[in-house]
Queue: 3 jobs
Job 1
Amino acid sequence: MAEEKRRNLGRGLNALLGETGMNANPPLAAAAGEVGEQTRGLRTLPIERLKPGRFQPRRVFDEASIADLVESVREKGILQPILVRPDGGDYEIIAGERRWRAAQRASIHEVPVIVREMTDREALEVALVENLQRQDLSPLEEADGYRRLAEEFNHTQEELAKAVGKSRSHVANMMRLLALPEAIKGMVDKSELTAGHARALLTAADPVGLARHVVEKGLNVRQTEKLAGEAAGAAKAKPAKKAEVPRDADLAELERDLAASLGVKVKIASTGKGGDITITYGSLEQLDDILSRLTGKR
């Protein structure tokens, strides 16, 4: 089963999508060995027959980018077919939703598509790999794409790196971004911080506070790394002071009463419904006296 998963991921998008115009990773395309399949399923469909895919990894569609694509579509048309799969009487988009959106705005009535029968698993995997190879996802969308491929298909970081033409360290570093606080993720999504800034903040003692400072001052990645390192060093050199928990007044009063009755130091600690009583004695004679007082035996 694991070997089958690795083989599918390594087929590349030219094989999976059957498109001659895909910018698939060359080693993957060469490994496919399915040149004869490239034009199978190619046809033209009315644009209203297509609908967005359920497995689209993109969370935000950049309006400026789509506007540029609209102008290109108006001038040259849809040069690269949209990958779809049958869904009832319509077709679900697996790869190419930006082209479909741009075609709508450009008032294009029919678009070229490649129709493939795919399971949900195959549709999700292709949608993720296609977007990751194109390098047009946001840093967090890219990171989440790697996570989903790793978790849902049991792919290793090495396999993911080969599939999208990246280094293993790049994949690992991007996936680390998922550990960031939500406030910093929001700054990355708004392009206030880059992926480089975000990685530097991972080791900061107060990542959110430092992130706000970086945005406010417009610091670059190198400056951010320096600040994060200095903050981490200062926090390590200065041990954190334990916050004092205010004592319950009733417990404190009971401690004093019991200490006066027994003639020794007494400490009462509450643990919720119950608690602990600690009695400190200085000698066996004092212990014997305490036991006598507690048992009433003299």
Job 2
Amino acid sequence: MTTSTLSHNTDNVVDLFTGKPYSAPYNSRFIRLAAELDGLEMLYSNEAHPDKLFSIKVLCWGLKADGDVVGLVPWLNDIVPCSDISDPLNGHWEGYYDPGIDEIFFEPPLHKVIELEAAAEYYDFDAGEGSEIIQEIPDSIGTHAVLSADGFKSLTLKEVVSWRLHSDGDIQGMLIDDDKVTETPVLPGDDSLFPAMQHDDFRYYFQHHIANKIKARDPEALAAISMLAET
């Protein structure tokens, strides 16, 4: 369900979800998230290994205000649409992957599209000024934030508890401020959570298998960290 943009006068085109006039920046923002709970993955390749495909788990599916639905993954220092990934080795998207049936596909699953559209219609959030929190989903893929204040000579890894979607479309990974914890376990929405981007030492996001390799001082993982530090 995508709003047509064939007309040169986009002021005459009305957004299906908000009822407001269409404008590209406004309608490219995310308005609803749906967690990926079936283990679907993103496939990507890079120049260093041209004959090899890599995979990481899709965090969630995001609905844009123009009706477009895309898979989202934590990638370097942000959360990005799978088709938009980019890295120092010129990594690029190769498709989605269902490991359960060993199938590659390129469009978001229909059941997720229906879920997102139904939720957006049901909640019918009217984005106003500012950046109000409109949704928060738990991190289900073991994302960690890497913190470093000395050029990666020393590292701290903190688990990402959740991801908050704001009314301006911004999505932020939330970390625990240990000094503010009053109850455990810390769940999405807890007052002790803060955005990773607000930490001066925040550098990158990694999924749990890479984070565990870093914790174990795996040479290959540390070499990858060194490469990122040089970019």
Job 3
Amino acid sequence: MTQSSAPARANSPTTTPMDRTLLAIDLGTTTGWALKSPGGLITSGTVSFRPSRYDGGGMRYLRFQNWLAEMDRLSGPIATIFYEEVRRHIGTDAAHVFGGLMATLTAWAEQRGVPYQGVPVGTIKKHATGKGNANKAAMIEAARARGFSPADDNEADAIAILLWAMETRGGVA
């Protein structure tokens, strides 16, 4: 988590951390997301940032930045962002995509004074399933057991990140 020198969005004295919009993200070419609105409604889904054959190298990141702005405009203002902090990737391409998306996310948040926090993969898996090395199927099943219907493991991971943030951090980074 980091704090920016940009003006932060202040809470009114009657606003508690759980009365704010929280965004949880599983960064990747197919990005999973889960959002808790100030009223407590949780929505989730996935969005693809796969480049088309005609895109330049930076288009994926520009689309991600625009998506963040749209989420903030439609559901926000986003008060805190939590994301899955991956420390080891199987492939070089996945590491590059993750790094670019994380850089875009953190720069976007810094510009707006939105606090953000990376959550280690094992922490998310252990909170959701009881096992720090749970597989994708177990993460999907854990989300279903909590009443969600994730389309895939990316959405299930984002839901798990959001629930972890709400249950262990009170939604505050």
